[in-house]
Amino acid sequence: MRAMVLNEPKRPLELRDVPKPKPGRGQLLVRVSTCAVCRTDLHVVDGELPDPKLPLIPGHQIVGQVEEIGEEMWEEPERPDGRGAPTFGIGDRVGIPWLGWTDGDCTYCRSGRENLCDNARFTGFTIDGGYAEFTVADARYCFHLPERYSDVEVAPLLCAGLIGYRSYRKTGDARRLGIYGFGNAAHLIAQIAICEGRELFAFTRPGDKATQQGAKELGAVWAGGSDEMPPEKLDAAIIFASVGPLVPAALRALAKGGVVVCGGIHMSDIPSFPYADLWEERVITSVANLTRRDGDEFFEIAPRVPIRTLTQTFPLEEANIALDRFRAGKLGGTAVLTIAK
Ligand SMILES: [Zn+2]
Ligand SMILES: [Zn+2]
Fold first, then answer.
1. Ligand sitting nearest the alpha carbon of 116
2. Sign of dihedral through CA atoms 218, 216, 334, 164?
3. Considering every ligand atom, which ligand is closest to the CA of 102?
4. How many A from CA of 228 to the centre of ligand 1?
């Protein structure tokens, strides 16, 4: 099968003909239709995340069709939250996210925090992902996808949507919500926030009037540069940009008891700041990975909003072009690789 392969970090992906994977116990063999490009893919390719599997097929926002089912399904039908695991048949549409496997047994898994599992494996990082014609995935971690979306439209929801949603839930019932870094995840989460009646304050790169205008058209009550203070203090802020100095900036924009949620997997160093900026029970937290429960909730909410995605498609063999444009901030929407013809 054709695959775009990372041989070593900081090098372009290589188009290669590699053996088609075989589904093991409890796994699905999936013919990949689309795979959206995530900022995490950039961090992996650029060597900013430690210890990827090498060589690696990246990609963890995968949409495809079940082609084959591994011989035996797992005997554990229940998810830790008591919901039944999804079942799939040949030909079913399936979504494969970042969280690819957990041990189900560590203190985190046993306390509803499988996103923090000590032994978790991640699609497109420690397991081969979706920049390929086929991939295999543990059926228990896959999702059925809302029918209203096409394979291209739904792909960005699998990570920007899911992990964005987890970041959003960490803001509790904040009424005035700031979002720093108005890219793919922000665009999706803003739609839920506005639908749920939050007042949205959008922070972009200073001077990026086009993105600010886009945020206002989406329904933000205010949009400005990340060097500006909002007209009112915020109850919460989510930072989607991987820029450490935004943390103290967001903290200064918070009302008492407010929370700053860092939604990315990688961020440049956070500069020091006076304790007074944290005082009065302000909180800084991060979001790591996702749980299957986040996915179940998100895919229930997304079609009701309904969340709309902005995408730009590239054929599989142009994955390097998609990554380069993403790195340069020159994409008009989430890059989605189209694979099955
Ligand atoms: Zn675990
Ligand atoms: Zn991702």
1. 1
2. negative
3. 1
4. 41
Cα 262 to middle of ligand 1, angstroms: 23
Q: How far, in Å, is the centroid of ligand 1 from the Cα of 108?
A: 6
CA distance 321 to 318: 5
How many angstroms does the Cα of residue 164 sit away from the middle of ligand 2? 10
Pick the closest to residue 3 from 136, 151, 100, 139 (CA basis).
136
Identify any residues that bridge with 62 across adjacent strands, giving them in sequence order. Answer: 35, 96
How far, in Å, from the CA of 61 to the mean position of ligand 2? Answer: 7
pTM of the model: 0.92
User: What are the pLDDT tens digits along the chain (341 aa)?
Assistant: 999 999 999 999 999 999 999 999 999 999 999 999 999 999 999 999 999 999 999 999 999 999 999 976 555 545 655 566 678 999 999 999 999 999 999 999 999 999 999 999 999 999 999 999 999 999 999 999 999 999 999 999 999 999 999 999 999 999 999 999 998 899 999 999 999 999 999 999 999 999 999 999 999 999 999 999 999 999 999 999 999 999 999 999 999 999 999 998 889 999 999 999 999 999 999 999 999 999 999 999 999 999 999 999 999 999 999 999 999 989 989 999 999 86
Residues with Cβ < 8 Å from 117, sequence gap 6 or more? Answer: 102, 103, 106, 108, 109
Residues with CB under 5 A from ligand 2 (ion): 38, 40, 159
